Every structure is written in structure tokens, then in C-alpha cells.
Amino acid sequence: MLKERDDKDCIIVAEWPKSSVSANSILQMFDVVAETITQVRNIRKSKNISPKEKISLFLKSKQEDKENLFDETIIKLCNLDAFKLTDEKIDNSISFLVKNFEFYIPFSASINIAEEKERIAKELDYNKGFLKSVQVKLANERFVQNAKPELIELERKKQADAEAKIKALEEQLKAL
């Protein structure tokens, strides 16, 4: 004999599950974690640090700001010996930003500081040239009058980003 079915139990007429606020915050935090892992791997590649060599990673934050959901994932995928919080800037380190989080990787013995200074100086020169070209474009009255507002806003964003990058590079150069 067949069991009588209640239509509420049938998946075809069931309501879609609703996403919770915590699920959205976990997804947003995962985006930060994925970008952090990418940044650490890019730094390893640009500084010729072996993926097998363990490094440390510091997050400039307060304890209550940091969620521990993905700590083990970051440690494993970045091959870290430590992932710690700090209240202040770490000297002799490489820094990077992911959204509003600031990370530091202390220099290891395998990083040549003279080469690092030279690389930062070259990047600084490039960014200053880029900033100058954007400023020339924004100073051109014909461009400003004839361009779409979105394009002008994009150029202003490029200018702000370049200025922030130059400031960060100058601070890194001072720290070395």
C-alpha cells in the first residue's frame, strides 16, 4: 500500500531556502581570504621566495575584527608558520591591502634588500609617470568638457589610486 503524501513535503512545491545574514558575511570574508592567498602567492613569486619556505603573515587589526573561520585555510594554502594579529606596522616587511585589511610579511633572509629597494624605486618611478599622464589628461579642458562623466570619474579614480600607491611605495622605501 502506498503512503499518502502531504504536498508540503514535495520538493517541487517547496519554497526556496532563504539566505541568512551570516551566510552572506561568510561569503564576503571568503572573498577577502581568496584575495589574501593570491597576494601572498604573488609576493612569493615576485620576491623569489620558494613555496616550500615557511613565512609569517601579520594582520593589522583588533582581535574583535578578525574572524577565525578561514585561518587554517590561509595557513595551509600560503604555507605559513604563523598568522598573527598586530596593532602596529611591522618594520622590514612587505605590506599589502585587501579591502580594508592590511597585511604584513616580514622580510626573510632570502630577500635581498638592495634588490628590493631597486624594484620599489622602479615601481615608484613608473607610478609617478602614470600619475603625471592622468593629471595631464584631467588638466586638458577639452577632454574634461567633451568626455562623459563616467570617463572623467574613472580618470579621477585612477589618479587617487596612483597617489595612494605612490604613498605606500614611499613608505616601503623609507622602511627599508
The number of strands is 4
CATH fold node name of the largest domain: hypothetical protein PF0899 fold
Helix content: 40-55%
Q: How many domains, as an integer?
A: 2
* CATH class category name of the largest domain: Alpha Beta
Task: Enumerate the spans where pLDDT stays under 50 for 5 or more consecutive residues.
Answer: none
How far apart lie the N and C ends? Answer: 81 Å
Largest sheet: 4 strands, mixed
- Class inferred from helices and paired strands: alpha+beta
List SSEs in N-to-C order.
HEHEEEHHH
Q: On the 0-100 scale, what is the average pLDDT?
A: 81
Give the neighbour order of strands across the main sheet: 2-1-4-3
The Rg value, from CA coordinates, equals 24 Å
Q: Give the percentage of residues in beta strands.
A: 5-15%
CATH architecture of the largest domain: 2-Layer Sandwich
Characterize the overall form: flat
- Tally the helices: 5
Please give a structural write-up.
This protein has 176 residues and is of the alpha+beta class. The chain folds into 2 domains: 85 residues, hypothetical protein PF0899 fold; 63 residues, Helix Hairpins (Orthogonal Bundle), CATH 1.10.287. 53% of the residues lie in helices and 14% in strands. The chain contains 5 helices and 4 strands. It has a 4-stranded mixed beta sheet with strand order 2-1-4-3, covered by helices on one side. α1 runs parallel beside α2 and α3 runs antiparallel to α5. It is flat and about 75 Å long. The mean pLDDT is 81.
